[in-house]
Design brief:
Chain B: Belongs to the MsrQ family. The complex is a heterodimer of chains A (335) and B (207). Chain A is 19% helix and 21% strand. Chain A has ten helices and 14 strands. In chain A, strands 1, 2, 5, 6, 9, 10, 11, 13 and 14 form a nine-stranded mixed beta sheet that branches. A five-stranded mixed beta sheet of chain A has the order 4-3-12-7-8. The longest helix of chain A has 15 residues, at 17-31. Classes of the chains: A alpha+beta (335), B mainly alpha (207). Chain A binds chain B through residues 83, 87-88, 90-91, 95, 99, 101-102, 154, 156, 197-202, 272, 288, 291-293, 295-296, 298, 300-307, 309, and chain B through 35, 41-46, 48, 102-106, 108, 111, 114-115, 118-121, 171-178, 181.
């Protein structure tokens, strides 16, 4: 059930979160669906040691219960060792907050991520503007350890917490005309210094898109947490996309609008340089970026004297799961 | 006023020489300190390569600024530091390349070959560095004397090098051209001044 923003009362003020978390677990146990603690392939999330001096992001009160109740989905997790938390929160491309890798962690700390609203629009039966809290409520969070491959040829292993985007979209009743999903990031130059820059070649707000079958794929994740915590603002708080088989720029951050559309949406990087950044942006070692090779990547953190250079895998190693989505397509053309 | 002071005293030029010698080492010292204290983030390799590249450009631009500054402000004393700054440019360019080959490519031969042949901006950057080497080798007074007029001709390569370095820099624009615009405008001024001087002297000759 969706609750549109009609009442100033937050639903968490009505029902204690422990009650609704337990009730949901109970219901899901009955329905025998979701992968919660009782299901095979799920495991408790370890108590992460984030490092004493690292900033913590507990997130809003209403999210904490769900984060604590989440379990790891082993079936969808890499067994590679995640990058240290300190690296993940200080090495970000989030051009709205600056071009340097450390700009987002320096300049996004006062970014207001709660309350947050997301508009669901376009070819759906139930369009509307929803409070994030209400949007998330029906979804159990799970941890998935994904590889993230940046188009700049670095990569990281990151433990996200979230739920499949497909589960979210289904709730709004996509119509038969829905062929693509278009996502939009917040535009707020007051808070986002990068959007005020005169020298940027990017148009704001940042827009990304997926084909419907990509969006509905079980690997496609909406993330709200990281390393057992809420998402830090520099990592795209409070609500972001993660598409692990595509270059990182597809995984749009701080989403305020999801629109289901009939035509392939124009995306920010594709508009800025269509010869360099395609709509699909599938990780592909065989197709170089026009200015650099994509055959290898630097797995971060990379120490200075033994650079952690590895060969890039097709679809970032997720080919078994997703290659079939592109059968019959020339990936040199649809890069 | 300060300048006449420099000219007037025997000790001060020596102090100035040391200053010009030590100042360009400061960025490198800072970089060592940051790397040592793990302050360069998750991708120190990229940070080091970018930093040394930027300082190569800065030193080259400073070297190119000597002549206009000397002529416009009649600071003849500047001339004696041009060679040192030019050599520092070469030094930083070599460090930049070594950092790239070591920290980013890990000296993997297959990657070295690919990067040096297939990435256009790296080809252009390598060419700029390659051309800097003969200038460094012939920078001694002895070579200057021996080569005479040919030395001047050879060292005009610095303009080509500066343009190649600028292309190398421009080619890396992702979404913001702020730095490239700044460096480009300064280079245009430095080269434009020379063209203007040439044109003026040419007019005088033909009059």
């Amino acid at each position: 059930m969706l609750i549109k923003r009609t009442s100033p009362l937050k639903s968490s003020e009505i029902t204690p979160e422990s009650v609704y978390v337990n009730r949901r677990r109970f219901l899901q146990g009955l329905a025998g669906t979701a992968a919660l603690a009782l299901t095979e392939g799920a495991a408790a999330i370890p108590a992460y040691d984030l490092g004493k001096d690292q900033p913590q992001y507990p997130g809003p009160d209403w999210l904490q219960g769900a984060l604590r109740a989440s379990t790891r989905n082993e079936a969808f997790s890499s067994d590679e060792k995640p990058a240290p938390y300190g690296n993940i929160i200080t090495h970000n491309n989030f051009y709205e907050f600056g071009l340097g890798k450390q700009d987002p962690s320096r300049k996004a700390q006062n970014f207001k991520t709660d309350p947050w609203q997301v508009e669901i629009a376009g070819e759906v039966d139930k369009p509307g503007v929803y409070n994030l809290e209400d949007l998330l409520k029906p979804h159990a969070l799970e941890e998935r350890i994904y590889r993230l491959r940046c188009v700049e040829a670095w990569s990281m292993v990151i433990p996200w917490m979230g739920f499949p985007l497909g589960d979210l979209l289904k709730r709004f009743g996509p119509t038969s005309r829905a062929k693509y999903v278009e996502f939009t990031t917040l535009q707020d130059p007051e808070q986002m210094p990068g959007q005020r820059s005169f020298f940027s070649t990017l148009d704001w707000p940042y827009v990304e898109g997926l084909r419907m079958d990509e969006a509905m794929h079980p690997l496609t994740l909406i993330a709200v947490g990281l390393y057992g915590n809420a998402l830090p603002p520099q990592n795209g708080a409070p609500f972001r996309l993660v598409v692990p088989w595509k270059y990182g720029f597809k995984s749009i951050k701080s989403i305020v609008k999801i629109r289901l559309v009939e035509e392939m949406p124009g995306t920010t990087w594709n508009r800025a340089a269509s010869g360099e950044y395609g709509f699909y942006a599938n990780v592909n070692p065989a197709v170089d970026h026009p200015r650099w090779s994509q055959a290898t990547e630097r797995r971060l953190p990379s120490s200075l004297f033994s650079p952690n250079i590895i060969d890039t895998l097709p679809f970032n190693g997720y080919a078994e799961d997703v290659a079939s989505l592109y059968s019959g397509m020339d990936l040199q053309q649809w890069f | 006023m300060v300048l006449t002071g420099i000219r007037g005293s025997a000790l001060k030029p020596l102090a100035l020489w040391w200053l010009v010698f030590l100042l360009p080492l400061l960025p490198l010292a800072w970089l060592f300190d940051q790397a040592w204290s793990m302050n360069l983030g998750a991708d120190p390799a990229q940070a080091i390569v970018k930093f040394t590249g930027l300082w190569t450009l800065r030193l080259l631009w400073i070297t190119l600024a000597i002549t206009p500054l000397r002529r416009i402000f009649h600071w003849g004393w500047l001339q004696r530091y041009r060679r040192m700054l030019g050599l520092y440019t070469l030094f930083y360019a070599v460090v930049h390349l070594l950092a790239f080959a070591t920290f980013i490519l890990g000296w993997r031969p297959d990657l070295l070959l690919r990067e040096l042949s297939e990435r256009p901006y790296i080809v252009v950057g390598s060419l700029a560095l390659l051309l800097l080497i003969p200038l460094g080798v012939t920078s001694t007074r002895g070579m200057q004397r021996r080569l005479g007029a040919r030395w001047v001709k050879l060292h005009r390569l610095v303009y080509v090098i500066a343009l190649l370095a600028m292309v190398h820099f421009i080619w890396q624009i992702r979404s913001s051209f702020e730095d490239q615009l700044l460096y480009g405008v300064i280079l245009a001024a430095l080269l434009g001044y020379r063209l203007w001087v040439r044109r003026r002297s040419f007019k005088r000759q033909s009059r």
